[in-house]
Amino acid sequence: MRIGILGLGRIGAFHAETLSGLDAVDSLVVTDPFADAAKAAAERFGADVVDSPEALLAAGVDGIVVAAATDAHPALILAGVEAGVPVFCEKPVARTMAEGVEVLKAVRGRDVPIQIGYNRRFDAGFVNARAAVLSGELGPLHTVRSTTLDPAPPPAAYIAASGGIFRDCSVHDFDIIRWVTGREVTEVYAVGGNRGADFIKEAGDADTTGAILTLDDGTLAVVSNSRHNARGYDVRMEIHGFTDSIAVGLEDKLPLRSVEPGVTFPAGTPHDFFMDRFTDAYRAELTAFTEVVAGTRPSPCTIEDALEAGWIADACTLSLREHRPVTIEEVRQA
Fold it and tell me: Which end of the chain has less neighbouring CB within 10 Å, N or C?
């Protein structure tokens, strides 16, 4: 199949490399406002270069991957749907939830699949955790702990346009909690602080946060996030049931060291970048998209899924600002 890529920044170039190595993909068509980025992709991956999204959609593509700036996501999703071409779009659907809802309304009822990029759903550990929960082997759940700690803050310009730590970082935890447990979040309580980069505080954002999510069966989920984890990129989950407990991310590249006498775990070089931690997951995610394009599976992460994680992020943002519990229904837009 022939896949188009719109946007060739860090993640777009990474997707181009991944797609070029998939057996199902015969050729790539790429476009980017920066001609040098498109030219580099063409030279590296043998991709065809076009000068606009319209030209890309007219180039005989079977599916498109949207890796452009967030502001462009709604228009590019809708352009793909109008052309009848399956769409993979990196999260978020749009910069604001109101815009995301409008995208959902515009595509509802259209027979064109859309997959939103939440790569943790394709990580082997999280896949195994979901299977363990759904099989019932853990018994009823009572506690989930989910962690995302970045090794260092992103640039100031990124922070200013990110929508805040809950929408940019924690949202991955929110999505994977829903997916692994199969439950919905009903209420949140969030706290946060600034312990490092002044530009994050100046942008009105927190650099370290904690949130307690109440799920619809009474399970409590504790989410911990920070922009400052000098030892590396730390993504983990613990799931505790009345019968058994399991963990995701407890492996030798875990960026944590034990001070227990005689303990040598973890023994590997710590993960220091999200692309390192989730290389295999990204490949599995885009392999899944080729199956969506081929019509052999439904979208594994829909716009509706992405918006649910977004409502949780908005509820946490409001909770942090007003220092109170917030229900999801309070922030949800029809």
Answer: C
Residue 218 has pLDDT above 70, yes or no: yes
> Other CB atoms closer than 10 Å to residue 136's CB: what's the count?
10
Tens digit of each residue's pLDDT (9 = 90 or more) over 288-324: 999 999 999 999 999 999 999 999 999 999 999 999 9
Angle between the 97-107 and 303-322 helix axes, to the nearest 10 degrees?
160
Rounded CA-CA distance 285/121 in Å is 8
Tell me which DSSP letter residue 167 carries. I
**Which pair of structure tokens corresponds to residue 243?**
């019968």
- Preceding amide of 92 cis, omega within 30: yes
Name the DSSP class of 137: T
Domains and CATH numbers, the chain: 2-112 (3.40.50.720), 121-274+308-333 (3.30.360.10)
How far is it, in rounded angstroms, from Cα 112 to Cα 101?
A: 17
Question: Which is nearest to 311 in space by CA: 213, 237, 224?
Answer: 213
Q: In 10 A of CB 23, how many CB atoms?
A: 7
Q: How far is CA 38 from CA 43, 68, 86, 286, in A?
A: 9, 12, 22, 20
Least confident segment among 28-42, 188-202, 206-220, 240-254: 28-42
CA–CA distance, 184 with 329 (Å, rounded to integer):
12
**What is the per-residue pLDDT across 41-58, written as a single tens digit (0 to 9) for each?**
888 888 999 999 999 999
Q: How far is CA 105 from the centre of its chain?
A: 22
How many Å apart are CA 203 and CA 267, to the nearest integer? Answer: 38
To which residue do tokens 């109008």 refer? Answer: 82
- Tens digit of each residue's pLDDT (9 = 90 or more) over 131-165: 999 999 999 999 999 999 999 999 998 898 889 99
How far apart are alpha carbons 170 and 183 in whole angstroms? 17
Coil, helix or strand at residue 155: coil
Peptide bond before residue 300 is cis, with ω within 30 degrees of 0: no
Length of the chain: 334
- Centroid of chain to Cα 283: 14
